[in-house]
Amino acid sequence: MKKVYTHGKQLRENYGTEYRRSIENKEEFFGEQARILLNFSKDFSKTYTVDSASSRIKWFEDGEINACYNAVDRHAISTPNKTAIVYEDDSERVTEMSYQELLQEVLIFSKYLQSKDVKKGDTVCIYMPMEPKALIASLACARLGVSHTVVFGGFSAESLALRMEDSDAVWLITSDHTFRGGKRIDYLGNVASALEILKSGESPSCLRGMLICNKESIPSEVLSKTKGHLEIIDLLSDLPKETLSIEDVPCVSVPSEHTLFHLYTSGSTGRPKGLSHSTAGYLLYAALTTLICFDIKEDDRFFCTAELGWITGHSYVMYGPLTLGITTVVFGGVPTFPDPLRLFRSVERMRATHLYTAPTVIRLLQKSLPTCLVRPYDINESRDNLTPAVDHVPNSPISSRSIFTHGVTDTFDRSRYYKEYNASEVALDKIDLSSLRVLGSVGEPINKGAYVWFSMYFGNGVLPVIDTYWQTEAGGVMLCPLISVTEYKPESASFPFFGMQPVVMKKTTEVEDPSSHKVEEVVGQTGILLFKDFWPGIARTIVKNHERYCSAYLQYPGYFYTGDEVLKDGNGYYWIRGRIDDVINVAGHRLSTAEIESAVCSVQGVAEAAALGEEDEVTGQGVTIFIVKSSDVPEAELFAQIKAVLRKRIGSVVNPKRLLSCPELPKTSTGKMMRRVLRKILEGQEVGDVSTCINPDSITFAKASIAK
């Protein structure tokens, strides 16, 4: 794999030339990348075709491949003792697994599924906590040519049942329990309820059996709740402990376009969309974006905090790093448990070279740590430069560790802080983060305050943040800055990845009528983000509903519709402004919620913000902002500061109709704000399905803030 890392360095350093080639000669470019990064059991004859009539996209046609071979077998052969997975559980225990050991575990799961006649073309549902066995089960499916559907472990029984039914899953792999944030979470209760839902459905379920990855013996009364609904229930502890070879369960070659996995979007309204991703195209795109966007080297240890139940976990915990033969970190804990420095210690323990996480995690850490730790920088909003606040600490340049050693006492009560947390546990000066080379952000635009804080406290003010923009439908990064190539601008996703042709479409009446086929590009003003033509990692369809896929994403022929608003500046940088439906129209002025929220979060004392439009008799819509405080600043004073900053940064048109303070805001497990829920609360409507909300108490808090 050494040539792969060298190849990645060359591509990145020659970004301008190679990007043009990836657009002007797409087939040559991606055909070359596929043959360098992947092993095909049968070479492809056509790199890329698209049927405009049926909107069927194909990459690497006539080729055959196996994802498990590319992610596991070839590395187990070439570097058997290299660490494949580093796992840290909720209690901070760390275990490591080599590529040879990973292969053995995959073979055990594969042999089990094979013995149950689970075969190529079938689908297996995986409902597990974030632990290595979730990856192993997924890779075992890929080995047999079986599609996997991973369901986030925090989902309800109804959500699990819907996904098993919609994907026609023939087998379920689950866990008995896990610990998260110090609390025991049992899985089998939800599983039993989901099976009951399937049994009561109008049509018979395809599900035939279940494997429980048990950590302890399971009481008979618990098993009896599920045995009435399935033919077969097996325990991992009962499987034979044998050493297997590759020949015992050989990889099954599948066509390049074979569905590697279905992944359901969490979320908004209506039935979730099961997006189907191909094998060769997706695998290449996950590997290539990992290699290029994150400057991957041979001995890297890639730490992405995402759950496997989401696309980020698929691409940047599992398939991307493993296909490249590096070490991936599987994080089974909570970033702030048992104290706010958990994530810092995790980086040190695992000697992570990369930390890829969500802005929500960063803001949560900001809120959890003392005030003096939250603001090491003087964030001058008129400049993009990140200037150290050296006035407060002698011997500049400042470092996150030096705050503790220079006795800063004027901004917070140290004795109170150390009373809450053991000093030996939380002293940043004792935590070594020198292994980190790259920081990354994913899930939503990162506001400048969070960007600065992340760079300062995890990167010592030296490491920039790779702010990545992409979607579940894309399979991997679409826009991002490149290390040593791009000038970094906080809050900008920078430039397109290879093969991506972003188009900022002018918002005209034609936008409401896709049949007009009019796509007029604009620069210097906000428009709708489209991508011209298609790339290897794009999802190919929605399970059982290709028509919905076409209407949702391909409504403008030849373009992929993102549903996001964006601004392209005169230097070619792209600034994501939020979803199309997250735009507030105040007296004819279209205001971006992302822009408003970024301004609000720049106010010291604000940890998070959510801006929404609310009906107004005079202006049509007014701006209502929910905030989460990060300090004890009185509300009246804080609200006055927020209004002043909004006037200064955006204009007097942003005069909030209401400012509401809550202890927390509703989010999905990926950290995305559930604005739909907040909007329903504002409108006095029922919030509907909130099964994806990981903090349901926040809904009560939001309602209470309105009722004040």
From TrEMBL:
PANTHER family: ACETYL-COENZYME A SYNTHETASE (PTHR24095), ACETYL-COENZYME A SYNTHETASE 1 (PTHR24095:SF14)
Domain spans labelled AMP-binding enzyme C-terminal: 595-672
InterPro entries: ACAS_N (IPR032387), AMP-bd_C (IPR025110), AMP-bd_C_sf (IPR045851), AMP-dep_synth/lig_dom (IPR000873), ANL_N_sf (IPR042099)
Short name of one Pfam family: AMP-binding_C
Family, similarity comment: Belongs to the ATP-dependent AMP-binding enzyme family.
Keywords: ATP-binding, Ligase, Nucleotide-binding
EC number(s) per entry: 6.2.1.1
Residue ranges annotated for the Acetyl-coenzyme A synthetase N-terminal domain, each copy included: 15-71
Organism of derivation: Nematocida ausubeli (strain ATCC PRA-371 / ERTm2)
Protein name per UniProt: acetate--CoA ligase
GO molecular function, one term: ATP binding
Ranges where the AMP-dependent synthetase/ligase domain occurs: 73-514
Gene Ontology terms describing biological process: acetyl-CoA biosynthetic process
